[in-house]
Amino acid sequence: MASPSKALHAVKPAWKTDRLPAFPAIALKALQLISGRDTSLLELCELIRSDPAFSAAILKIANSPLVAFSKNITSVLQASMLLGFRRLKCVVVTVGLREYLKAPVTPLMQSCWRHSVACALIAERAALWSQLDREFAYTAAILHDIGRIAMLAASPDIYSRVVDDEADRPQDLMGKERELFGVNHAEAGAAIVRAWKLPGAFLETTSGHHDEGTRHGGTASVIAPSCMMADALGFGVVKYRGLRSYIEISKTFPVATWEHFPSEAEKFVAEITEDIRVIEAV
């Protein structure tokens, strides 16, 4: 009989980005346009209108409490104009990520989805409070775990072994990923950014969101603490034994954000939970 170690390595999949499930073309185009000018709005709008499912999802979000326009939005063009190019891209990427994890929906996939969305909602707030780029913060945060999501989408049974047990800290989890896949999810995320020809700004946030002791500048500075806070608020994928408290994590954000965080974690959990509920209802 093969030893447990040999059996483990026998199922190790080759990590190839060209063998991953395809990310929705519309969402990928939106990501590639992330540095574009507002003149690309009609191009993206036409792309959305070519897909009935995306069109319906955009309209539902535009008419949801998450956006809260004062009038009923009846067309993708109208929604695009009111949302604006940068906000529209955030919405498209959110819908795209949901589609990437659409079926079959498992508890682990649901946890990954909710962690990514919670991280994005926290990062967006933190960026707004710090007068940083809130749309980039949202998009970078919702994609910070794209490596983990791709691993899960490609090999759900194998990736489930990564999260079977608790870990002291993310680095322990990443070591288990490397043992099973040959790469960890941060490295996989960076490989995907390159393979999908996404803007280089995403390299820092996908590859470095668990780097200890590294101080990121600008908008990227809110991504790592947003990931930690999502875990601390109960939107985690893995149960970490060494999690810091809500208050401790809030102090790792830029100073300008500190006074804006709700004093009680439960209040913030309720806010994020409601926003996720609205997005999931689309």
Q: Which features does this protein show?
A:
single chain, 60% helix, 16 helices
CATH superfamily of the largest domain: Hypothetical protein af1432
The CATH topology of the largest domain is Hypothetical protein af1432
Query: How many separate helices?
Result: 16
**Name of the CATH class of the largest domain:** Mainly Alpha
CATH architecture of the largest domain: Orthogonal Bundle
β-sheet strand percentage: under 5%
Helix content: 55-70%
The strand count comes to 0
Distance between the termini: 50 Å
Instruction: Compute the CA-based radius of gyration.
Output: 19 Å
The whole-number mean of residue pLDDT values reads 85
The largest β sheet comes out as: none
Find the structural class using helix and strand composition: mainly alpha
The total number of structural domains is 2
Choose one word for the global shape. Answer: globular
Give the ordered list of helices and strands.
HHHHHHHHHHHHHHHH
* Parts with pLDDT < 50 across at least 5 consecutive residues: 1-10
Describe the structure.
With 282 residues, the protein is an all-alpha fold. It folds into 2 domains: 21-100, no CATH class; 104-282, Hypothetical protein af1432, CATH 1.10.3210. The chain is built from 16 helices and no strands. Helix 2 (25-32) runs antiparallel to helix 6 (85-100), helix 3 packs antiparallel against helix 5 (76-83) and helix 7 (107-129) packs across helix 16 (265-280). The longest helix has 23 residues, at 107-129.
